[in-house]
Design brief:
Number of domains: 2
Structural class: alpha/beta
Radius of gyration: 25 Å
CATH topology of the largest domain: Rossmann fold
CATH superfamily of the largest domain: NAD(P)-binding Rossmann-like Domain
Distance between the termini: 60 Å
Number of strands: 17
Strand order of the largest sheet: 6-3-2-7-8-9
Shape: globular
């Protein structure tokens, strides 16, 4: 079977495959992208291809692979081409879009081809930098050196590239717009601060620092799309259907949202909203982030531990379960939605949309994967809703408190093997618990003080001790009248009756 390349494009005549217009394959490079991963390809690169096919944006991407491992070789062998399959429910019916994306001009390895990266950054056509270097990527390393080839951290690489571009093109032509896609709050602000700090550490001249601070734009952005990546379980059938081999094929849900906080002229530079894409330009990203974090992410985090303990394995099962699905809906509409400021109808519509996305028959989103690092997720996704609900209603949100009890029950560590920690579901099946080592040791030690069946008083003591760890940031929760007692009651019920019965008994 032939591999996907430019030469192969002319022989593809399938009605179900959307091909890139030939003219779009020779457009000038306008974007520098840090990251070869599945998400950016199924999100940014795919959206740009849609805009290019419509005769808007009219630009391509040079991708920088910053790590030793990545898919630079595979993408270059394919002339930058890859297949993106988007699947989901549209107007109540299953829908699938198959698109060959030709946005990527080439991929450069920063570790081996730093000289080429330094050359590319001097291209005056490049105006936008996007990135997805993981949450840990936007940070400074003590090993950062300006003259290293390349510098260590992502912000250090950005600093060096900005400086080289500034020296080559001058103040006016060198300006860049940064749109980081890392899943951290105020990602653009954080990247800018890292770069400015490095400018001072590297001893760069004041004129350049002022230019970075005032002329370069660091947008905060919010991205939302579930990308499952390479479909290894069905790749043979897919390749037979497509008629070619593609090692870079990537699968995602249909839904996408990109919220970008920046100057109003940005929508003229990046006119993705004009081709019907769900891209929002705003001067305040906060409401959108609150909505996503509390409803979508919070919906996951508040329910997955209970659902998994009860024997369910996937998000679709969870939301369609007659008891757990109702618990999730009631939690969102009765306890979370009221805490979110903004247009009520828009928030309700977003919530219904989230529940539909959870039912996507094409996405097998494993609950155990969502439990990863539940502690940090709890502090961001659940606790603010509890605090705001109590502040507004002067009463406790029972379902959200049950989710805290579910977290504590899930973190009942029954076995530790070196660096690995395990718990047991209601049916006795063992599962891994993956989180910060300090948190895991804390939970292990806290649960280890109690043998056998716990009394209600013991559950209260355990609740207070477990939630007292500073990384949980649960002090406000513990100070709410009767909150700890309510959580302890739910925890006792989870231990004695199981998740399903506890949910059914919630008042």
């Amino acid at each position: 079977m032939h591999k996907l390349t430019r030469n192969l494009l002319k022989s593809i005549h399938s009605d179900e495959i959307i091909l890139p217009d030939e003219k779009t394959l020779n457009l000038p490079v306008k974007v520098l992208q840090f990251g070869t991963g599945n998400f950016l390809r199924a999100f940014v690169d795919s959206l740009l291809q849609i805009a290019n096919n419509k005769g808007l944006f009219n630009g391509r991407v040079v991708v920088i692979q910053s790590t030793s491992e990545g898919r630079a070789d595979l993408l270059n062998e394919a002339n930058g081409l890859f297949t993106h399959i988007a699947r989901g429910i549209y107007k109540g019916q299953p829908k699938e879009e198959i698109r060959i994306v030709g946005t990527i001009d080439k991929v450069l390895k920063s570790n081996d081809e730093w000289d080429k990266v330094l050359h590319v950054i001097k291209d005056p056509n490049i105006g936008i930098v996007v990135s997805n270097t993981t949450e840990a990527g936007i940070s400074i390393s003590p090993d950062d050196r300006f003259d290293d080839d390349p510098p260590c951290s992502f912000p250090a690489k950005v600093t060096r590239l900005l400086y080289e571009r500034y020296k080559a093109l001058g103040k006016d032509k060198a300006k860049l717009i940064f749109i980081p896609c890392e899943l951290i709050d105020r990602n653009g602000d954080i990247l800018k601060q890292c770069v400015l700090n490095l400018c001072h550490i590297f001893g760069l001249e004041r004129e350049f620092i002022d230019w970075v601070s005032t002329e370069c734009i660091f947008c905060c952005s919010l991205v939302d799309r579930i990308v499952t990546g390479y479909p290894k379980d069905e790749i043979e059938d897919l390749e037979k259907r497509l008629g070619y081999e593609d090692k870079n094929l990537v699968v995602s849900e249909l839904f996408h949202l990109w919220v970008i906080e920046g100057p109003s002229y940005l929508k003229e530079i990046l006119p993705l909203d004009r081709v019907g894409l769900n891209v929002v330009f705003t001067d305040d990203i906060a409401p959108y982030r609150t909505r996503k974090v509390r409803i979508l992410n919070g919906g996951h985090t508040s329910t997955v531990t209970l659902a998994y303990l009860a024997g369910l394995n996937y998000v679709k099962e969870m939301v369609e379960h007659p008891i757990i699905g109702k618990y999730l809906k009631d939690l969102l509409f009765e306890e979370v939605v009221p805490t979110i400021p903004g247009d009520r109808s828009e928030i309700m519509e977003f919530t219904h949309e989230v529940l539909e996305r959870f039912k996507n028959p094409f996405i097998k989103h494993a609950l155990i994967d969502i439990t990863l690092n539940s502690t940090s997720k709890l502090t961001v996704r659940i606790l603010p809703s509890i605090i705001d609900f109590y502040s507004m209603r002067k009463k406790l949100p029972n379902r959200l408190l049950l989710s805290i009890a579910g977290y504590l029950r899930f973190y009942k560590i029954t076995r530790a093997d070196g660096k690995a920690f395990f718990g047991r579901r209601d049916n006795g099946e063992e599962y891994p618990i993956r989180d910060d080592r300090e948190i895991l040791e804390h939970m292990k030690n806290t649960w280890g003080k109690y043998d056998g069946s716990l009394t209600l008083d013991q559950c209260l003591s355990l609740t207070k001790e477990a939630l007292s760890h500073p990384k949980l940031e649960a002090q406000h929760l513990l100070e709410m009248p009767s909150a700890a007692e309510k959580i302890a009651t739910y925890l006792h019920n989870l231990l004695t009756k199981g998740a399903i019965s506890t949910i059914l008994d919630i008042d």
